[in-house]
């Protein structure tokens, strides 16, 4: 890298903001709702009378009582304390594709035509959104080579679960489900492939990488049998390594009668370059909140677009959007369908944003997205591997696609500062703590950035410069890294209660209950 | 109240390594090592570990042995230790380690930190068993035991966090104390056995990344494996249950008495044999349909030939490869870092039969495909 990168000074706001449940005073109100006038009450009855007696609360809800400015201040403080996508160079979240979503997508999603419709409306009155869903289905078909999509799954893992259910339905229809109870996946595929297959009742067989970092093909051959229901695999895997022999893997599973599912949660490195169909797959999915730019984080709303080949389409969730040449319809008459996987049509706002993104990019734009992502990633590889303490495993000398899994193992051995120390220290430079790895950690002290097409060359250089600085600190003054963050909103947090049922609290009521003990 | 941290440094551990002696057990070898110019390794490593504990120095009472067995290292790191017992400087033996461990046990230290190798772990285990928690600072030539942290620094860090007590994220698990026969090893024969288990703090799962979710703890993982095995246990098979904590979970699920370091047999949900030897096993399996359940030895990957020699080549041959069930938690599988599973029975033909790929049960309805080599 030529020229010094000037690291910015950063200090996060600290507000020590209490929980909203601890704020306010009895009787404080944001809005005072006027009493209904007597004449009106006499004529049509009180507002309460419109709610059936059995649905009325016996006690008032224990809501916090605050004025409007207090509430505005509270949420403003929380927003300021959040290091979000729009404040920082957020390329550290590999497998997440932290892509900037154009404001125009958001504007469209917030128009009354979108916000004021209800899924219980007659389909005649929501032709607009049905048209978008239908056309976006066509777009997804073109990108993947599959023959029909559903947008009901609300997330990527929800789509893989839908797949596992569909695989079950397919074998059940052929009278083979009892015999075919195994789904094969790989350790570097997204862990939801294994988890959702297991949740759907299948035994899960996981392949480990061979010495080159590809799933062990010889191992695959030994486990394919009349018990194989299918393969659920991610490619490129979490390591960023693309398996060029993927068709052979698919063929091996097909040969014993299994179905093959391609996890394309993150398709940013292959858009317009490879398709699930040409690789031989029977089904695939996209995370609309990753590759297709719809914003994500904080658990939603997401969109798992799930698509299949024609012969599997009859199993897709109900309803699907159809077009008769004049009008769009919701087809509920699907006797072979696996049923519903979520309410209504899925997160249609997410579909709208994704549609808007694709329409603004065009086919050439999608291809360019992949090209820029791969170039960015491989530029970042050059920058990061030059940093003392950073190493990379597997496939020596081979290019990665859209992301790379690195390791701070050497740094940890040399200085005692591991990947968790480094990621906490990043926050002192105004960068979001990077994604380490899915569990279990196969690569020690891992981290996995993904500099998608959103990020400029300078962004990549800045991000790498921060890690270079932290590495330097680890070798000269490890304590500052060990005790980080120093400039962030909160200091090192004890996260242990997160997996301790005695201490975690998902609700205020649970919090009070557990604290009182 | 201050927490009590016990520290035992085996000052001669590791000496045999640099000079190629494959271990440091026994006075003669230590003497030879010194002649060959070996320098003590473990005091330096103990200091590395202690430096990571200094931040809680004021909240901990450090109890240790005189001179190079802990006192020197503790003082170097700014501790003001309580020194117990007496030793002869420069001529420590395994008795000193055992005596110190006895005293630590009597004083009920909250954690016994020790620097050494497999031999040291054995000495400590002989005295404390599972009565108090312990953690090893890796300093020896042979580290086959799973009671050691991955580095001296990590040992210190883990010890400090365990003693701080704020983190239920750090829990105790039973880790293997293994040792090989050094004399045999010097003659190029490798024989190792499982001596027992120490209670060791470990960091559970590392849950810090909310996005990635958390890993199941070891206990829950073993429980899931036990469910899988018990759910799929046909009545017409005799089950030979190998040693270890993972197999113990199966016996626990069946409500049966278990021999932790030995081999038991189960038939139709009943215990039909405890701590069986080879000839008892051979007698028992004659004419029956049999399955063998064995676990993987952490970090090493041995499935047969270490710690379960009772399940001999003859037994394995009779039972057949298709009736062998290998079990291991994901953590254990990953602790192998990509190395294959190992078999080392006394019969080359059986070793050959066992090589190839095998599905290892890692949870309820979960299998990993691993390579087996001999």
Tell me what you see in this structure:
The longest helix of chain A is centred in the last third of the chain and has 38 residues, at 348-385. In chain A, helix 10 (348-385) packs across helix 13 (457-476). Chain A has 15 helices and twelve strands. Chain A folds into three domains: 20-80, no CATH class; 146-358, Aspartate Aminotransferase, domain 2; 368-498, Aspartate Aminotransferase, domain 1 (Alpha-Beta Complex), CATH 3.90.1150.10. In chain A, the strands form three sheets. Chain A has a seven-stranded mixed β-sheet with strand order 1-7-6-5-4-2-3, with helices on both faces. By secondary structure, chain A is α/β, with parallel strands linked by helices. Chain A has helices at 38-44, 68-80, 103-109, 112-115, 127-144, 156-173, 191-199, 217-223, 246-255, 348-385, 409-415, 419-426, 457-476, 478-482, 508-516; strands at 148-150, 182-186, 203-207, 228-234, 259-264, 283-287, 304-308, 320-323, 328-331, 391-392, 406-407, 446-447. By secondary structure, chain B is of the alpha/beta class. Chain B folds into two domains: 3-203, 3-Layer(aba) Sandwich (Rossmann fold), CATH 3.40.50.10330; 218-373. In chain B, 33% of the residues lie in helices and 25% in strands. Chain B contains 14 helices and 16 strands. Chain B has helices at residues 15-18, 27-35, 42-51, 71-76, 94-106, 118-128, 152-164, 182-186, 218-231, 245-254, 278-285, 313-319, 330-335, 348-354; strands at residues 3-9, 60-64, 82-83, 111-116, 134-138, 170-180, 192-203, 238-241, 264-267, 270-273, 290-295, 302-304, 324-327, 341-343, 356-363, 366-373. In chain B, the strands form three sheets. In chain B, strands 10-9-8-11-13-15-16-14-12 form a nine-stranded mixed β-sheet. In chain B, helix 9 packs across helix 10 (245-254). The longest helix of chain B has 14 residues, at 218-231. Chain B is globular.
